[in-house]
Every structure is written in C-alpha cells, then in structure tokens.
C-alpha cells in the first residue's frame, strides 16, 4: 500500500512537471496571437535604422516587414537585416519583448494556401524568399531585380513572382523632400552607384537617382490584395 502511495505521488509530480514544461513550450512556440499562415506579412519597428528613416518620412506606423514560413520547429520570419541581408528568425524571437499592439500582420488572400492540413505548404511568397532570396545582400542601390533586397522590396518582389503587385512604389524624392536625414542617408547608401562614382558632386548624383521608386511597408499595406489579420 505504501509503495502504491509513493508511486502515485511520483506519477503526480511527474505529471505536473511535464504539464508545466509543456505549458512553457506552448507559450514559447504559441502561434503568436493569430492563426498564422505561410506568406503572412508581419510588420514591426526598431529593426533597421534606414527603415526607421523611411517610416518617419513616409508618415507610416511600421518600418520593417517580414514573411512568415513554416518549419519543423515552428513558424519563422524571413526579413532583411541591414548587416546580414536576407535572413530569418523564429517567430517568437522576432516578436520577443513586443506587446500585441507593437506589431501587425497582413495576409495576401490571393495566394494564401489556407488549408489547415497543408500547413507545411509554404506558398509562393515564402518559397520565393527561401529559394530565391535567402542569403542575398542588402540592396543599397534600391533597384528592383538586381539580386539584392531592402526591407519591403523582399515581399514586394515575392508577390510579383506570384503575379501580384502590392501597390505602387514611391519616388525617393517624395520621401527625401520632407526629411533631410533621409536624403543624407540615401546619398550615403547610393555612393557606390556607378553614376555617383563618376559624378562631380553629390547633387549631380542626386539629380539622377532621386527618380528611383521604392516599396515601403505602407505601400504594401495599402494594397487591395491584403487584409489585416492581427490585431483586429
């Protein structure tokens, strides 16, 4: 009888220990605060300094954007880091320390797999980011189709690969005209552009390059192809 009691006690302790551990893992890997799908676009701030300058000039709420993908360990976010280029992090790492109103998630419904039994199906956006863009350098020239990527260019080109245009990119002249810090940062970023290398003065370089248009998070979010899924 005594042995039975201690066996039951040990089993109870073991169960509660497992339960607490499982609860911790659930909290760690919980699917954020929404029913995530591969290809979801997640927006947040405070990742890259240049993104913050663009956000300020754009009068936008969000600076940086990533693409969700499936993995055996849980959802991951593919995004552009200003030093590492196109990289990724676990979703729980990407939102670590953020409250639910410190980020937002949008879904491109036209390309969403949307079948619960096909969670590992990446969809075209995540597939493009993994197979065509992963490891690519930062696009300092801010040009589409050159094998490198800046912030919102990654999901913009990923969507284009699926035949979807997420809005109309904005000329950098529009953004730089309201923020001198951004103009200075753009000239620094573009200084090794072939035209800037041979230009006699920075202003000569700017006169040509100011017509470059860029995708921004607000451009993506304003597209008719997306809807907000978190927070709602």
User: What is the correct CATH architecture?
Assistant: Alpha-Beta Complex
What is the CATH C level class, in words? Alpha Beta
Rg calc:
22 Å
Helix content: 40-55%
List the secondary-structure elements in sequence, H or E. Answer: HEHEEEHEHHEHHHHEHE
Count of separate DSSP helical elements: 10
Overall structural domain count: 1
From the helix content, strand content and strand pairing, which structural class follows?
A: alpha+beta
Reported by name, the CATH topology is endopeptidase fold (from Nostoc punctiforme)
Please tally the β strands and state the result: 8
Low-confidence segments, ≥5 residues, pLDDT <50?
Answer: 8-29
**Residue share in β-strands:** 15-25%
CATH superfamily: endopeptidase domain like (from Nostoc punctiforme)
Head-to-tail CA distance between termini: 56 Å
Give the averaged pLDDT, no decimals: 85
Shape: globular
């Amino acid at each position: 009888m005594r042995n039975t009691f201690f066996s039951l006690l040990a089993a109870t302790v073991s169960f509660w220990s497992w339960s607490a551990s499982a609860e911790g893992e659930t909290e760690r890997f919980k699917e954020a605060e929404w029913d995530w799908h591969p290809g979801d676009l997640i927006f947040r701030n405070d990742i890259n300094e240049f993104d913050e300058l663009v956000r300020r000039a754009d009068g936008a709420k969000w600076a940086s954007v990533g693409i969700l993908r499936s993995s055996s360990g849980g959802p991951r976010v593919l995004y552009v880091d200003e030093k590492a280029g196109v990289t990724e992090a676990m979703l729980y790492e990407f939102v670590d320390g953020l409250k639910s109103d410190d980020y937002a998630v949008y879904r491109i419904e036209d390309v969403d797999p949307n079948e619960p039994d096909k969670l590992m199906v990446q969809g075209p956006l995540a597939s493009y980011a993994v197979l065509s863009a992963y490891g690519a350098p930062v696009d300092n020239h801010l040009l589409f189709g050159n094998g490198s990527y800046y912030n919102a260019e990654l999901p913009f080109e990923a969507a284009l690969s699926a035949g979807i245009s997420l809005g109309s990119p904005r000329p950098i002249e529009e953004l730089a005209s309201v923020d001198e810090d951004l103009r200075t940062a753009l000239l620094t970023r573009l200084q090794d552009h072939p035209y800037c290398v041979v230009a006699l003065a920075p202003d000569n370089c700017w006169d040509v390059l100011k017509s470059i248009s860029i995708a921004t998070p607000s451009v993506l979010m304003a597209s008719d192809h997306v809807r907000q899924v978190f927070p709602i």
